[in-house]
Write a structure and sequence with these properties.
Blueprint lengths: L3 E5 L3 H13 L3 E5 L2 H8 L7 E7 L9 H8 L4 E5 L4 H8 L5 E4 L4 H16 L3 E5 L3 H12 L4 E5 L2 H10 L3 E7 L7 H11 L6 E6 L5 H9 L3 E4 L4 H26 L9 H11 L7 E8 L2 H8 L1 H18 L4 E6 L2 E7 L3 H17 L2 E3 L2 E3 L3 E6 L6 H17 L5 E2 L4
Parallel strand pairs: 1-2, 1-3, 3-4, 4-5, 6-7, 6-8, 8-9, 9-10, 16-17
Antiparallel strand pairs: 11-13, 11-16, 12-13, 14-15
The structure holds guanosine-5'-triphosphate.
Keywords: Nucleotidyltransferase, Phosphoprotein, Transferase
Organism: Alteromonas aquimaris
GO molecular function: diguanylate cyclase activity
């Protein structure tokens, strides 16, 4: 179910704008112009239905942030919005446990707000590890992070931190202080970098040193970023958000580079990378199948290119489902590849034959038209240490399957 966001804002124009942002973030805005209205609307549903609240500091019936107190006391993560950026308002807002505080100064705040909303939802799945030997400074960071929905882990030193990282693959960010047990912080960062790249695990060093020397040392040891103490809350959160967004962006770009655009299956390049990365030597028992749809040109010519695309997507989905335990790819056009490591020739043939029949029996509906398609398959089961050699063998067998009438598997008699 779409999570709700309580938006409390006295200006009708700003309320409409913020509600639109909330909707764009895939969330459901519940708007109110005053504290009274907000209290009434909030009581109409259960608190668990809400992700957070965006609350104007000054409202007609709550002139000094009482609406912030209401949402914070209702355990709603609260983003405060203010008309002014003066020190007294800022201090009054930050004295409360708000997630963030946004002055309505310029158009950029709306961009910041939408990023914040997206992050709040994502953070529920993001692990953050705080490493600091001193309880007070560790707890200060943990308290700030909690407001942002992160899954938080704490460690006093290097050994404990490694154990936690080994156990929890969803940790994307490590924040570490100058003082940690077992090891100097910079040596620990350098060790972590042997295991985790900057694109998969962000490391932020928190430095108490007044000179910039330690900060530079952190960066040279492999940290993504540095925070100098005393830091202000906004800077702490901005740096965290920025580093996590960078990891997300790299992940998105990597996924796009590895996927076939039309079908979402891994592409040829990623297929080779995955197989070669997984096996130093290809196993003695293995099978590789090249699948090519039959008379596909005729489908394009008869029903149009969009119908052809639809058929490709449909078959790709069948492949992804039928071979979710092995390596698959769209090689291009109407050609797909499946690599089955540790499969005997007999077992591989049974799997492919079952799939061939599945495609043959499928009725693909596009624009109320029923389309049938079949597939020819070249299946190589050669022991080989070279994936290209296997492919070339499968290609010859595919050619034979086509030449022998299509809709069949080409195999070598053993
Ligand atoms: N709709 C669509 N068509 C594509 C795509 N990629 C390649 N094709 C078309 O796929 C057709 C492949 O035709 P052919 O190589 O002659 O093969 P075929 O008609 O399947 O015949 P056989 O393989 O011999 O059974 C060509 O017309 C390509 O334009 C795509 O992404 N979408």
């Amino acid at each position: 179910m779409q999570k709700k966001v309580l938006v409390v804002e006295q200006s009708t124009h700003s309320l409409a704008l913020m509600s639109k942002l909330v909707r764009n973030a895939g969330l459901n805005p519940v708007g109110a112009n005053s504290l009274t209205e907000a209290e009434f609307k909030f009581r109409q549903s259960t608190p668990e239905e809400y992700l957070c609240a965006i609350v104007d500091y000054r409202l007609p019936d709550a002139r000094h942030g009482e609406a912030l107190d209401f949402t914070i006391n209702a355990f709603l993560p609260t983003i405060a919005v203010t008309d002014s950026n003066d020190a007294s308002t800022r201090n009054a807002v930050l004295a409360r446990q708000v997630v963030d505080y946004i002055p309505k100064e310029n158009g950029q705040i709306y961009d910041y707000l939408s990023r914040l909303l997206v992050r709040l939802e994502k953070n529920k799945k993001v692990g953050v590890l705080v490493i600091d030997a001193f309880r007070h400074s560790r707890q200060t960071m943990v308290a700030l992070l909690k407001r942002h929905h992160f899954i938080i882990y704490e460690a006093l030193g290097a050994k404990e931190a490694i154990d936690i990282l080994d156990l929890h693959a969803h940790i994307q960010l490590v924040i570490l202080a100058d003082s940690i047990e077992d090891q100097p912080s910079t040596a620990f960062i350098a060790n972590l970098r042997k295991e985790y790249s900057k694109e998969e695990l962000a490391i932020i060093g928190v430095s108490e040193h007044e000179s910039g020397l330690l900060s530079a040392h952190y960066i040279k040891s492999g940290a993504n970023d540095v925070l100098r103490k005393p830091y202000c809350y906004e800077e702490f959160m901005c740096r965290i958000t920025q580093n996590l967004e960078l990891i997300d962006n790299v992940k998105t770009i990597r996924e796009a580079a590895n996927k076939d655009f039309l079908t979402g299956l891994p592409n040829r390049r990623h297929f080779f990378y995955s197989v070669n990365h997984s096996f130093k030597n290809l196993p003695a028992k293995q099978a590789l199948a090249l699948l090519d749809l039959d008379y596909f040109k005729a489908i394009n010519d008869t029903y149009g290119h969009d119908a052809g695309d639809h058929v490709l997507k449909h078959v790709a989905q069948l492949i992804a489902q039928a071979f979710d335990d092995v390596y698959v790819a769209r090689f291009g056009g109407e050609e797909f590849c499946v690599y089955l490591p540790q499969f005997s020739p007999e077992k591989a043939f049974i799997r492919l034959e079952k799939f061939r029949k599945l495609v043959e029996g499928s009725v693909i509906v596009f624009d109320n038209i029923e389309i049938n398609v079949t597939t020819s398959i070249g299946l190589s089961t050669r022991p080989s240490h070279n994936i290209e050699a296997l492919l070339s063998d499968a290609d010859k067998l595919l050619y034979e399957a086509k030449a022998n009438g299509r809709n069949q598997i080409g195999v070598r008699d053993n």
